[in-house]
Design a protein that fits this description.
single chain, 458 residues, alpha/beta, 15 strands
């Protein structure tokens, strides 16, 4: 009976006048919700069909629930039905064919597809940017930390983060906390954030670690115990769960993977953090041209990325805006157009360059994420203070496993394609549990901004 009602609902939605959506244009689109699924019309990928989890299995901007257009030609026709019927009825491994979102592909989905014949997919809100937008970002503030409250408020105002996307937690203001202390805060964040929130900004410096996990990984994916509890490897040199978001085409990481990638809004002082936020904002859609440096340093242990970097990516092979260089040196100097600086040193000897807004400085070393400890390793917050908009550091000994550090080619490719810093950085990591990511998550120098409106029509 439930499935029959679902089919009837889909049929009825096909004849709803599109003017029903336009009728609400007098109200802010973040306040209107045509299908009453708790997803504001401004970002809803199925405007007229209840789909609160926003599944978009083929990442084309239309939610799976309103997208039986299997060949993406903007019309549901016999070709789509033929594609569907070529697959066994019991196939449950293709989520883009699960139109009623019941976890399997079966004859009910076939009935929905046939009911849609002759119509376009959607309608869906048109993406206003090639990357995530403020309405899709959560902001987490630690009420036990007055600086966190200040940073959070500054970021909220600068980025116009909706009040519904802000979560207040109470955590000890110290470098590391236990998994037990962290658990209630994680539960509160997950319960409080709306389902359309896809990523998170964390407005503090401490805590930055949950035992051997970084706070960014723990908030995004939950505490990954296997990385800390494996007694068969020295220190924390083993691996934990693979990052399914790695090098993906996904535009909705929470809807598709249950992961909300996060970054820490942090630096050595409040003023430096404000400057970081301002840099991220000023970089927006500037479409700059500049350079990337992959450093082959004298540190034979930490320059692994340079040793394995594919020379086919040098020059402008990845993006015409960025000229990639692999150089044999311990540092660069006197530059003002470096957007990507991939280092491999315990301590970077020279950071005195002018880094343009949106720039990333990424150092492969053991303890760059141990922000409150004097380890002799260059800290991620030092990179932010030097002028970076994004930086990386490990919060526990990662050993030299390239999977635990950003893949330069992947990071450059996704960032310069118009994705935000948080999307690109997270997509560059195969292992996340020790990775502390610091910077403005919404920074997007190569954003492809678009007019608002709707995709498709019934």
């Amino acid at each position: 009976m439930k499935n029959t009602l679902r089919i009837l609902m889909c049929l009825s939605l096909l004849i709803v006048p599109f003017a029903a959506v336009n009728a609400q244009q007098a109200d802010p689109l973040m306040q209107s919700d045509s299908d009453r699924d708790s997803i504001p019309d401004k970002i809803d990928n199925c405007l007229l069909l209840d789909n609160p989890m926003q599944q978009d299995s083929d990442a084309d901007g239309f939610g799976t629930a309103c997208d039986p257009d299997l060949n993406n030609d903007m019309i549901v026709d016999a070709h789509d039905i033929e594609l569907f019927e070529k697959l066994p009825q019991t196939d449950d491994l293709r989520p883009h064919l699960d139109f009623n979102l019941d976890g399997k592909r079966d004859h009910i989905d076939g009935d929905i597809l046939r009911a849609w014949q002759g119509k376009s997919p959607g309608p869906a809100a048109k993406r206003t940017s090639s990357g995530l937008i403020p309405e899709q970002l959560g902001l987490v503030i630690n009420d036990n930390d007055p600086v966190s409250i200040e940073i959070g408020e500054y970021y909220r105002i600068k980025r116009n983060i909706p009040d519904a996307n802000i979560v207040h937690v109470q955590l000890p203001v110290r470098a590391g906390i236990s998994r037990a202390t962290f658990a209630p805060a994680k539960q509160k964040i997950d319960q409080a954030l709306p389902p359309y929130v896809q990523a998170i900004a964390i407005a503090w410096t401490n805590p930055h670690a949950v035992e051997c996990n970084s706070i960014t990984s723990a908030i995004s994916r939950g505490f990954l115990a296997s990385g800390c509890d494996n007694k068969n490897v020295a220190r924390y040199c083993g691996f934990s769960d693979f990052n399914p978001y790695f090098n993906s085409y996904s535009r909705l990481p929470y809807s598709q993977f249950g992961i909300r990638p996060s970054m820490l809004l942090a630096s050595s002082t409040f003023e430096e953090t404000k400057a970081l936020i301002d840099r991220g904002l000023s970089a927006q859609a500037t479409h700059p041209k500049g350079k990337a440096y992959i450093m082959n340093t004298s540190d034979n242990i930490r320059n692994e990325r340079a040793e394995v970097f594919d020379h086919a990516f040098l020059g402008r092979a990845i993006n015409q805006n960025i000229d990639i260089h692999l150089i044999n040196a311990d540092s660069i100097s006197d530059t003002n157009d470096t957007y990507f600086y991939f280092q491999g040193m315990m301590s970077i000897p020279n950071l005195k360059n002018i880094y343009p807004p949106g720039a990333i400085i990424d150092n492969l070393t053991s303890s760059g994420g141990m922000l409150e400890h004097n380890t002799g390793h260059t800290k991620a917050t030092e990179l932010i203070a030097a002028g970076a908009t994004g930086a990386f550091g490990a919060v526990s000994e990662p050993c030299v496993h390239k999977e635990k550090f950003a893949n330069p080619a992947v990071l450059i490719a996704h960032y310069t394609s118009g994705q935000t810093l948080v999307e690109a950085y997270w997509k560059s990591l195969e292992q996340t549990f020790q990775a502390l990511l610091v910077g403005d998550p919404l920074a997007n120098p190569w954003a492809k901004e678009k007019t608002s409106g709707y995709l498709g029509s019934p």
